[in-house]
Amino acid sequence: MKSLVRVASGQGFWGDWLEAPRRQVEGGDVDYLMLDYLAEVTMSILQKQKERDPRMGYARDFIGAIESVLPGIVERGVKVIANAGGVNPRACADALLALADQKGVRGKLALGVVTGDDLLPRLDELIAQGHPLANMDTGEPLSLVRDRVLSANAYIGSGPIIEALGKGANIVVTGRSTDTALTMAPLRYEFGWGAGDWDKLAAGIIAGHIIECGAQCSGGNCLKDWATIPDVWNIGYPIVDARPDGTFEICKHPHTGGRIDVPTVTEQLVYEMGDPHSYITPDVVADFTSIQLEPAGENRVRVFGVKGRPPTDKLKVSIAYRAGYKAVGTLVYAWPDALAKAKAADQVLRRRLEYLGLTFDTIVTEFVGANATHGPLAGAPSDAPEVQLRVGVRGQDKAMVERFTRELIPMVLNGPPSVTGFAAGRPKVEEIVAYWPALIDKTVVTPQVEVVR
Fold first, then answer.
1. What is the pLDDT of residues 211-222, one digit of tens each?
2. pTM score
3. Is the predicted pLDDT of residue 379 greater than 60, yes or no?
4. How many whole angstroms separate alpha carbon 339 and alpha carbon 237?
């Protein structure tokens, strides 16, 4: 058993800094590179891509990330774990194998492919078997929107990733794994933590939670003393230095920017936390109130004292469904009377929409610079140098939403004066993808693991 395992975070979402994976592998010794690509909305985007092309449906940035770290994988034995498979892990694996062929390293890569999280093909069967997949917020059964469902994926835990590592995989690609499992799995694998080692498993979950959003725990998006965070242009992504007893430290590579201290780690801990006593995952329920943090040197924080308890018998299911259409447009009005002009333009636009008989489920107006971020502000300046009028509509009739986009731009010449910010032209109509969280019995979700070379 190793006495220390280093897991580096290289992506916190699909669209994160493309340089981060390479910098993590080349910046110093690491055992594992963890890449987290999936958010709830990402799954629906990937499903729509797969509908258009059956070879798509995964995070394509991942292929470039692997190309940038191939020397570390092949020569130094760094292993990679990522949920980049999205809704099509096998297509992701095919793209990786094509890359390996191109680079002449096919025989040196073993790809673990984890599937079984995709419930979309089984929805009707599951509903018929008595699994209503009720909305966790409203209690409504999924049958109400079944005909509009776009994707449905269960959050699976660390077990299948551990199985893939045990079969010799040095790159593991999953679909909708929990973000935290990407870090916890290598710790369980290397340290041999058992299914009942609740405190150690909870520590692994906390480690994963702290680094799952990449540089958000090393000074990025930081509220406390944000202006004093050094060299953010060169920000270092976080690394977990974990030990067999469940204690670990958060650090980053030397000579990188950003900051890791108790405040930055604390900010990430409370991100998407929910009930601090019960952070529920497929592997364990972690108690955030038990976490102890202390400084452990420059840009290093020690985490210890974590407590856990057995998980529930359910898995969370992330479901996305089509919910109509939207369009958002903007115009910028300049001083003098910028706010008054923007308000007048809003009233003109609404009267024209009413005149044309256009109705929407929702129409929302914001005056950016006066009230958009925090709502109406007391004493908002009436003489602001510029105000952006932002108007959005949503509705079930795509043609009606399209007509809205045709009424905004004409106001450049037939509305209030001193307008700019219209060079992009008409707003685009976009399909709305709504989120439906649900629970399902663990017994009906069976992940599959395949290792391909």
1. 999 999 999 999
2. 0.93
3. no
4. 41
DSSP 158: S
CATH class of 323-436: alpha beta
CA of residue 400 relative to chain centroid, distance: 32
* Cα–Cα distance for residue pair 136/116, rounded to 1 Å: 22
Q: Give start-end residues of each CATH 3.30.70.2750 domain in the chain.
A: 323-436
* pLDDT tens-digit map of 47-76: 889 989 999 999 999 999 999 999 999 999
DSSP per residue, 328-373: EEEEEEESSSHHHHHHHHHHHHHHHHHHTT---SEEEEEEETTTTT
Tell me the DSSP string of 26-68. Answer: HSS--SEEEE----HHHHHHHHHHHHH-TT--S-THHHHHHHH
Cβ-Cβ contacts under 8 Å for 376 (sequence gap 6 or more): none
Q: Which residues pair with 436 in a beta bridge?
A: 319
Lowest-confidence range among 83-92, 176-185, 270-279, 324-333? 270-279
Mean pLDDT of 313-339: 96
C-beta separation of 116 from 125 below 8 A: no
**What is the sign, positive or negative, of the torsion defined by CA atoms of 14, 16, 18, 19?**
negative
Which pair of tokens denotes residue 15? 């669209």
Mean pLDDT of the chain: 95
Q: In which region does residue 168 sit, left (phi positive, over 0), alpha (psi from -120 to 50) or beta (all else)? A: left
